Amino acid sequence: MSQQQMNNNTSSSNIPVSERYWTLVDKADKKFSKIRDLPYYERNRYDTYFYKVFKVYTQLWKFQQENRQKLVEAGLKRWEIGEIASRIGQLYYGQYMRTSEASYLSEAYIFYEAILTREYFKEGSFQDFNLANKQLRFLARFLMVCLVLNRREMVHQLVNQLKMLVDECKRTFQDTDFKEWKLVVQEIVRFLKADTAFMNIRPLRYSLVLDPHPDVLPHVAAPVARKNLRLRDAVLSSYHHNEVKFSELTLDTFRMLQCLEWEPSGSFYLSAGGKNGQNGALGSSRINHSQDIADPTLPPNPRKAVLYRPSLTHFIAVLATICEELPPDGVLLVYLSASGTTGHTLSPSGSGTCFNAAENITRDFQSHTIHSDGTSTSSMSSPSNSPNPSASQKKGDCISYHTGCLQFGNCWSGGLNCIYPSDLIPFTRRPLFIIIESDASEVFKAISGAEKGERAALLLSPNCSFPIGSSDASRHSVGSLLTIFLTAPLQAFCLLLGISGSDIEMIYLLSGSIDIVCANLQQGGVPSRMYASTSGCCFTKDKCLSNRSCAAG
User: Fold this and answer.
1) pTM, whole model, 2 decimals?
2) How far apart are CA 120 and CA 36, in angstroms?
3) Which of 53, 55, 77, 111 has the alpha carbon at shortest distance from 281?
4) Low complexity bias: where (predicted)?
5) Within its chain, how far is the Cα of 136 from the centroid?
6) Of 550, 553, 504, which is closest to residue 524 (Cα–Cα)?
7) pLDDT digit string (tens) for 280-311?
């Protein structure tokens, strides 16, 4: 050891333990504030920042463990220890949202559970308004982790605690009405009412225990000239009036988020185990880097960007960033669930149409040619630019038209919050799998044939709607039907026929296949075979299940 290092160690040992601790806390706070508001996309760009923050919090956690008694004597409070653990839990959850690695989510759960069982925030929370807020925020964050991790028993326990804490805070701090927290309680209660136990008979994630291993599934031989593509990234977003949500996670995106992941096999977590450090605190071994907490028995999950009510510019920016980072063999899944308009074309008489929405979009892209010199020409002239307006209207007598779109905002904002099919076409230079859940989904058929490099796969919802389950059920109370079929097909099939509850749960557990369910339904006089029309509306041999007049009827 050099003389300089010996002098540094000597000087640091002369600094009081409490001063060294608060210096570390200040350093960790500064680094945490830099990454707290960074977006969950642009993941590769910020990896270095997260490793640095993890390193600082590792040092801080280890230091407070080794010097707990001295720090308590110097005035360290229990809630300050809980604050460090909560920050570490936030870091792990943030890394899960950026990487979709389930091990990060599990680590976040471990730290939050330790805070709950050791009651770090409970002492003095009803005497200190700020401390009460810290406990409320902790419960809300832990609730989100438990929801995504599918720890339903803990979810219900936390909801009860949150209700009691909000009520107690309203009685104690009468100057504050805690309106925001009452809305949080209402949100999670409504969310759990929609995402029932029936919908969670089995995990929405692909489970190696319940599902066949990918190696035994039949593979489609790819052409020699084609590359093998894999789902690498996903963009998930939904916008509906009064939709079921908790925080910024809607019911539809919550279900899609889970069905795009593997259910952890458990082999890693059994071997890793939760180790307790001295003084009942979590051991420093719980803080690991990504290479130390990956479960080698599972393939990587596709990375996901969950966007809550994005503006069009934000959505395009995220899409462009992810496409830029997409590996050469990667496929990007784009899931959009929103209300929409199908578009219409006006004639001079005010009646009739001359082009449908899909034809309009295709016409726009096919009528413009970009030349090598950067100029553009159009094979079609607008009515305003035509020397003979009447001549331009002969072909169908059109005056104006607008194409259909998805509305990700209020109607009065016009096209500022609308996503058109033409907004997605530039990104078809990369392989896309597009899922549209909307009453205007048909307008996105225009993407097919207008791709700019790679063929896009389209999965569009039906245009006609129909009741689900009981007569008072609606899309807002149970979620979008196509999304339910994609994430929980058996439950969706039963809901479509108006069957739910313990009976179908027992049938599912005993049968393990939809064939047994259909057989039982047919014995009860319910037509079990379903057909699909070209319009996408589901119906039986006898009548449309929606009892509406549609193309399938």
Assistant:
1) 0.76
2) 22
3) 111
4) 375-392
5) 23
6) 504
7) 445 444 544 444 455 676 778 999 999 998 88
